[in-house]
Amino acid sequence: MKEKRQNKIKEIIESKEIETQDELLSELARAGFSTTQATISRDIREMKLTKVSYGAGRQKYTMIQNADIDVMSKYHKVLKAGVLNMEYAENLIVIHTVSGMAMAVAAALDNMEIQGLMGCIAGDDTIFCAVRSKELCKDIIAGIKKVASDE
Description:
The protein is an alpha+beta fold and 151 residues long. The protein contains 6 helices and 6 strands, in the order αααββαββαββα.
């Protein structure tokens, strides 16, 4: 069932401009797949879906094609497009993103394997990042800012 659902997700995002998980959930329901938002979130992460701009500041889901693009460059673009601000408390970094971009930014950060960043939990526009120690938070934030500002 998972493979069929993920194949349908691929088909949907290749044929339609899907901006949110809710839209994807609706399209899957129309195609006869009964699933939850949590399952969709896992599918998005497993399939390494990301969001790209497609006009007037709008974002849509797409698949990363390793043969077609430089993946790290794609992650940098996601950070640049999505990150609004960052702050930390103890060993947690809170990142505020453009609405709907938190999952894409969190997936990019997780896949970039940043030293000391243990993992991210994303909502719609907020990400909590667990850092190995509070001493690393400033350096991680500076590194993310650098990546997000580079072309």
